Amino acid sequence: MPESKGRAKRAYTPPSKPAKAKVGNPPWFVPVMLTLMVLGLLWIVVFYITSQRFPVESFGRWNLGIGFGLMLSGFAMTTRWR
């Protein structure tokens, strides 16, 4: 009985590697983070230096909350920094 011809085997091609996920932050991330921290610090310093008249006199002691809020949002961004 005649033997059947075998199929031609293709050359082995390894599976393609999946694209690596982009590691890092967008270019605007670090400047915004630093700006928030510095702006919060300056807000509080101006508040104390001007005897609580500036940046916004009608806010009163809430100026401290705004300054600390700006700084805390900048520090919160540091947890996402890569």
Spatial extent as radius of gyration: 30 Å
Tell the overall outline.
rod-shaped
Determine the mean pLDDT.
91
Number of β-strand runs: 0
Helix content: 40-55%
Strand composition percent: under 5%
Helix run count: 2
Sketch the major β-sheet.
none
Coarse structural class: mainly alpha
- Strand/helix succession: HH
Assembly type: single chain
Distance between the termini: 69 Å
The poorly predicted ranges are none
Features:
single chain; 46% helix
Describe this structure in words.
The protein is an all-alpha fold and 82 residues long. The chain has helices spanning 29-49, 62-78. The longest helix is centred in the middle third of the chain and has 21 residues, at 29-49.
Helix-strand blueprint:
Blueprint lengths: L28 H21 L12 H17 L4
Helix pairs in contact: 1-2
Compact summary:
It contains 2 helices and no strands. It is mostly helical and 82 residues long. The mean pLDDT is 91.
